C-alpha cells in the first residue's frame, strides 16, 4: 500500500504554498494538501489537528507521511500526539516542537491587534516580508506582493483564530522523543520565525532523523530554495515507502 504524502501549510498561506512541490510529483494522486486557512471556528492547534485528521480519514487515509510548514508543523505534532498510529513519518519544515516564549506570545498579541487596527492586507504585508530572508525579499518584491495579495483573501477572524491557536499551543518535545517513525527537519539559517539554533537543537530529540539545512533561506524554503526542499521531501517519502514495504 502506498503511504500518502500529506503537506500541511503554515500561517499566512494556504495550500497554494505547496503548488511547486505538488506539481513535481504530478500526476501522483497520493500527495494531499489539506487547507484550513479560512476557518475561524477552530480555537486551538489540537482542534486544527483533529479537523485535518477527520478530513483525511474521511478520504480513506489510514496512515501518512505528514510534513508541516510552520503552523502546519504544530498541527502535525498535535496529530502525532493524539493519533500516533496514523504517522508513518513526520516532517517539521521551518517549525518547532517548543511552545512560544513570553516574548513570542506578546508579539502574537500585537499581531492580533494589528489585524483589527490595520486590516488583513496591511498586517500581512509586514508579516509576509518577515517570512523570507532579507536578501530574497529585496530581490523578489513582485513575488512577495503576489503572496500578500493571495492571502489577503483570508478572513480577519480566521487570521486571528490561527494566531491565537499558535500562541496557546503547548510544548510538544515529548512527541519527538517518543517518535518510533522517521523525522525530517528542514531548517532555514536565516529564519526569523523559528530561531535556527532552536531548530537545530530539537533535531537531537528524536531517534531516527534526517535534516536539510538551508544556508540562504528564511522561513519559506519551498520558495527560496525549492530544488533542495523537493529533493529532501522526495528522498524522505521514498525511504519510508521502502521501509514500509519490508
TrEMBL record:
PANTHER family: MONOACYLGLYCEROL LIPASE. InterPro entries: AB_hydrolase_1 (IPR000073), AB_hydrolase_fold (IPR029058), AB_hydrolase_sf (IPR050266). Keywords: Hydrolase. One of its GO terms (molecular function) is hydrolase activity. Residues 4-226 form the AB hydrolase-1 domain. This is Alpha/beta hydrolase. Pfam families: Abhydrolase_1. It comes from Siphonobacter curvatus. Coiled coil: none annotated.
Amino acid at each position: 500500500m502506498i503511504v500518502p504524502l500529506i503537506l500541511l501549510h503554515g500561517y499566512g498561506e494556504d495550500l497554494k504554498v505547496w503548488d511547486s512541490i505538488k506539481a513535481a510529483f504530478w500526476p501522483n494522486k497520493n500527495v494531499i494538501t489539506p487547507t484550513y486557512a479560512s476557518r475561524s471556528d477552530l480555537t486551538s492547534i489540537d482542534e486544527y489537528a483533529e479537523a485535518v485528521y477527520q478530513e483525511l480519514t474521511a478520504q480513506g487515509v489510514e496512515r501518512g507521511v505528514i510534513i508541516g510548514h510552520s503552523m502546519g508543523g504544530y498541527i502535525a505534532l498535535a496529530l502525532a500526539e493524539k493519533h500516533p498510529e496514523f504517522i508513518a513519518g513526520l516532517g517539521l519544515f521551518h517549525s518547532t516542537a517548543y511552545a512560544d516564549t513570553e516574548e513570542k506570545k506578546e508579539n502574537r498579541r500585537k499581531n492580533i491587534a494589528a489585524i483589527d487596527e490595520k486590516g488583513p492586507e496591511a498586517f500581512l504585508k509586514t508579516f509576509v516580508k518577515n517570512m523570507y530572508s532579507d536578501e530574497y525579499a529585496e530581490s523578489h518584491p513582485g513575488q512577495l506582493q503576489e503572496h500578500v495579495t493571495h492571502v489577503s483573501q483570508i478572513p480577519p477572524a480566521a487570521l486571528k483564530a490561527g494566531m491565537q491557536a499558535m500562541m496557546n499551543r503547548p510544548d510538544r518535545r515529548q512527541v519527538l522523543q517518543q517518535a518510533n517513525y522517521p523525522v525530517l527537519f528542514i531548517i532555514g539559517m536565516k529564519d526569523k520565525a523559528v530561531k535556527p539554533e532552536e531548530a537545530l537543537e530539537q533535531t537531537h530529540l528524536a531517534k531516527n532523523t534526517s535534516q536539510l539545512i538551508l544556508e540562504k533561506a528564511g522561513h519559506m524554503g519551498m520558495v527560496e530554495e525549492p530544488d533542495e526542499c523537493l529533493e529532501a521531501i522526495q528522498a524522505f517519502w521514498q525511504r519510508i515507502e521502502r521501509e514500509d514495504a519490508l
